[in-house]
Amino acid sequence: MKADIHPKYVDAEIRCACGNVIKTRSTKPVIIVGICNACHPFYTGQQKLVDTAGRVDKFQQRQAKTQALQAALAEKKKKKR
Fold it and tell me: Which of 47, 19, 45, 15 has the alpha carbon at shortest distance from 29?
């Protein structure tokens, strides 16, 4: 290995916006993140929907139409038999 080309590996703190602090080692002494395992919806089990311009509602309406169409096609197949 070449001397003096590698960054210093120091004790570091990872700070989340929720206030959680994680101690680790890194090349930077302080790392600030917006979301961590203590507040991420996947790990907490809480689902957060951010509806931008009604996209969630539009998706749910499309999904309901698709399910209704599939049910109607299934009924037609049953009647033909």
Answer: 15
Tens digit of each residue's pLDDT (9 = 90 or more) over 8-49: 999 999 999 889 999 999 999 999 998 888 888 777 777 666
Say which residue the tokens 């994680």 belong to.
22
Cα–Cα dist 63/47, whole Å: 19
User: Of the candidates 27, 45, 47, which has an alpha carbon nearest to the alpha carbon of residue 37?
Assistant: 45
For the whole model, what pTM was predicted? 0.49
Beta strand pairing status for 21-26 and 30-33?
unpaired
Identity of residue 15: R
Query: Position of tokens 């700070």?
Result: 15
Q: How far apart are CA 13 and CA 63, in angstroms?
A: 44
